[in-house]
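Table S2 (text version). Query chain:
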Amino acid sequence: MVTDDNPKPALASSGAITLNRPGKVCAKRAGGHADVEMLFDGKTLTLFGKQANLYT
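Corresponding structure-token output:
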């Protein structure tokens, strides 16, 4: 990403996805702008924002 002012901001984040068939998923993303986790057990989807301490 390059802005009009010429600085090149560094954005670093990492993520991981774990699949357990049939239908179970865990995805995590962590970095400067996000620290979130998504869980799906085949019936229920849960999203959790660790920094904000919020879930849905």
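Notes on Table S2: Residues 13-55 form one domain. The first strand starts at residue 13 and ends at 20.
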